Amino acid sequence: MISSFAAGGTAALSRCFACGIDVFAAEFWSRAPLLTKAADLGGTAPAQSGFSDLFDAAAVDELLSERGLRTPFLRMAKDGSVHPGSAFTRSGGVGATVPDQVADDKVLVRMDEGSTLVLQGLHRTWPPLVRFASALSAELGHPVQINAYVTPPQNRGFAPHYDVHDVFVLQVAGRKHWTIHEPVVPDPLDSQNWERSRTAVAARVRDDAPIVDAVLEPGDALYLPRGTIHAAQALGDVSIHLTVGVHPLTRYSLVRSMLDLAERDRALRASLPMGVDLADPAVLEPALKSTLQELHRFLDSVAVEELAESVSTRLMNSTRPEPIGPLAQLAAAGSVAADTRLRVRAGLRCRRRVDGSGVVLTMLDRTLTLPSDTAAAVDTALAGAVFTPADLGGLGEADQLTLARRLLREGVIVPG
């Protein structure tokens, strides 16, 4: 049995578009760009704040001046050229002598010259975005990352290009002019980055009219499927926008997972004939035909449960569950009572099975084994609803509390 998180609502996605989840999934997801104006998001954004509750100019200054960021958590670029790290970093000084910490004064000079600042990995370094990314990933079912782009007026940091992941652009401050063109490589994979198609991208931008030509203002949101060619230029004020990158699992991902499973099949591991020129199509053809036959036979035998376990492992390695405070978790474990409200950690992915050793929970980099008689209680804890230790059926009161403490200490559940 595989136990995974269930998406708990759509509050984070409703910050990114206003057309409704079903419409977005059917008409825009991986298909077409979507621009949503702030006025249409006003009913879902907190108190008409646009995205300033997630990020703002003060957050930029704090990250640059007080948080000791290091590369690659930031980079800078101007007119399509990326600056070397030495242009905006230096040693942190006494007690923090690592050589690549952000130098706020150097960043100031580069920005005054018109360079764009990119703050990368904000889903790991800025608390409101840590929470937002965790919720958004859970709602989408795909891994999420968040960067911020800070561009001085009338400047452009990067040349027209495309990304190999989907993007939600959330305009935080200032105004930015976006031009969007049709892909030259629809649905590109990680190995098909835009630099491999630089000439085709330039030709598309030169010869074809944009499919979107718009100015994003604070509170506006823009969705771009992977492969969509885009460029942006700040207008009258400093522009700050969040780029929420969504790294979708694809059908190609499933193919790769199935081929990874194929290594266990002896017939597919067999060597090709010796003493012949395998580069000759006439020689290779019979070997190819027999290999395809064996591959079809193997693929027909793959159980969906096996493939789901492979996908689950990939998602475990590329998504982060709800953040937890270690000290708060230890305090909760020490004070838990029969009526303490608890819930499974949001976004947690774990596989649950029962075997001769007991109830086994497999998580990202560890395995937790619990007594066999806790199976029903563990299922209650993982179900998604708020519960109390008293709800953990099949156990006495002392064992209910023991299990709750263990799951709190292991980061499986959190106070509800």
Principal-axes geometry comes out as globular
**Portion in strands:** 15-25%
Would you tell me which CATH topology of the largest domain applies? Answer: Jelly Rolls
Distance between termini?
25 Å
Radius of gyration: 25 Å
- List low-pLDDT spans: 1-7, 43-48
What is the architecture of the largest domain at the second tier of CATH? Sandwich
Give the overall pLDDT as a whole number: 91
* Helical run tally: 14
Percentage of residues assigned to helices: 25-40%
Give the number of domains.
Answer: 3
The CATH C-level name of the largest domain is Mainly Beta
Q: Report on the biggest sheet.
A: 8 strands, antiparallel
Spatial order of the strands forming the largest sheet: 2-12-9-14-8-7-3-4
Helix- and strand-based class? alpha+beta
Number of E-state strands: 19
Features:
disordered N terminus, eight-stranded antiparallel beta sheet, alpha+beta, 14 helices, four-stranded antiparallel beta sheet, 416 residues, 3 domains, Jelly Rolls, single chain, Outer Surface Protein A, domain 3, globular
How would you describe this structure to a colleague?
By secondary structure, this protein is of the alpha+beta class. It is built from 14 helices and 19 strands. The chain has helices spanning 21-27, 38-41, 57-66, 104-112, 122-125, 127-140, 198-207, 251-261, 266-269, 281-301, 304-318, 326-335, 375-382, 397-409, and strands at 2-3, 34-36, 74-78, 81-82, 89-90, 101-102, 116-119, 144-151, 166-173, 176-181, 212-216, 221-224, 229-234, 239-246, 342-344, 350-355, 358-362, 367-370, 413-415. The longest helix is centred in the last third of the chain and has 21 residues, at 281-301.
